[in-house]
Amino acid sequence: MSEQFEDALANRSDPQIDAAVPSEGPSAGGDGDPLRVMHVESVLYDLTDPSPAIQLLEAESPFRYLVVPIALGDAISLQQAHSGIDGRRPGTHELVTTVLTRLGAEVVSARIVRLEAGVFYGELEIMGPRGRELFDCRTSDAITLALRQRVSAPVLCAESVLTAYYA
Fold this sequence. Notes:
By secondary structure, the chain is of the alpha+beta class. The chain contains 6 helices and 7 strands.
């Protein structure tokens, strides 16, 4: 980890990054919606289902599951990242991870911030020499890049997404 990144991380005062835990915790997008820490449990592929899915488990009580459908190619990339497998040639996620590292930037978190009409919306939080940046992206890309870090970055999910998923 670069010294600049370590200093920025140590001196940060952003409550969204500091703790991603229960209702008193940080908010997604500043609207008071707390973020919950999720663990990648597995990548599921059922031959009777048209698409694979990421299975996430909430890190703290009430330990809710979240199943996010993804494309087959994304599932392969995510499973390789989850298992720590590198391809013979760098794939897109491996390339982006290498580029970020060489530019002195690291993934701080992958966020699932919205669920609309069955579509999960993600964000990728990156800390680099110019500070913290938040990028809109596909949930599967954010999670795969988070897992590709030397030390996996946390996967965070807005409480409103979990509430909507279980509604």
